[in-house]
Write a structure and sequence with these properties.
alpha+beta
Length: 497
Amino acid sequence: MHRRIIAPGALAAATLLLAIPASAASHSPGAPGIGDPYYPDYGNGGYDVSHYDLRLTYQPATDELAGTATISARTTQDLSRFNLDFLLDVGEVRVNGVKAAFTTARQHELVVTPKTPLAKGTPITVVVRYSGVPSTKSAYGFTTWHRTPDGAVAADEPEAAWWWFPSNDHPGDKATYDVSVAVPDGTQAISNGTLQSVTSKLGWTRYNWRENKPQATYLATLALGKFDITTGTSEDGVPVINAYSRDLGDNDGAARASVERTGEIVDWLSGFFGPYPFSSAGGYVPNTTTGYALETQSRVYYSPRQFGGGSNTSVVVHELAHQWYGDSVSLKGWKDIWINEGFARYAQWLWSEHEGEGTAQELADHVYASHPADDPFWTVAPGDPGPDHQFDIAVYDRGALAVQALRDEIGDKAFFALLKGWPQRHAYGNASVADFQRYAEQVSGKPLAALFDTWLFQPSKPAAPAARAVSPAKTQAAPAQPRSWKRIQATNDVHSR
């Protein structure tokens, strides 16, 4: 035992220290990032969110947004302070009913210091009151808040939440949502899940939406404007809610001809992936100038440009496939993007076969033959593409080639069991490429490390094509282009900012 002699002059300070709980010394700040190597500053450490309750008011004429976010969470360490990802102006923060100190840091961090440190495992309720004009805010040189002629839209990847609600912005921390938005009469508010109620008072209408299954923050969406809303139910009983801006012009007919097939496509995809995982399905097409679509959970965002060349069910298939591969089962880290995009692209290949416009094998043959060995296409590794190539075409097309190669290797019986079993194994959770490989080996009974390495990680064209049936005679000329190819190519920018 080591005894320490305290000098008389230090006695008062020592007495003060004794008044502080011994455990307080172990409390430390939560990390300003969740630890994703692609985006080190995204998300936060020290807590896990279970629910977001967002009560908002929006004025479309001025783009003013005011809100109160109530965040239910639990600490994962002894916590002295923690961060939220957010850009708007904060007026007050409370933690468990008590006012907390707060400041901002870096480009998108709200730093909260509770009055009393929080022990690990403590349930916490964080209330943030805020306001601002989202269209005036940017971080890292961009914005994900898109103004429209009659309102605005929040939809982007890998980030979108900062512009409209404070959050732990990483797919690794999923939560349920209640989103309540008041807008002037005549304007509508659309979000994820199901519409719980609509009330009107003194010139304002409030829309209350609920997503009752865990949802990644980038999959939360908000659309504010004047829409034509259609509702229905798929043949298998899935409620469908679609919305179209009233000023889509020449793209209106093609958008409706595509998106109104949502119920049919959801039921068709269920045959491959298992029961639809959410309480509703649908999409919306606002009058934006963006060029991408996004699998916002249960309510897909489509740019009007997706339908500039006519109807395009292929993009609808792609985004709805994500409801299983990407939304219900979300990536553990952004490097696992292949599980999202490779399988969503492969769903388009299966749809092509369903429509009689080219089989999955024919599409694989065409993609493989279209890229010579020295094409940079082969230098992108879909299994870990890096943040600069996260949405490169190779993640989609080479990613789908990897899926076809897996099918060729394990056979259709195991392959289709795998397609359906994976979303059930990890429903409403997170998983990695390594998790998928282990599951594929379990289902097929085959070692697959070499196949995954060849198709997902090696920066070169594999020696053998994914097509198992290409004869020597056929290798002299490129396979015929499947009829669906141009429609599939039209979706190549679905996630390009």
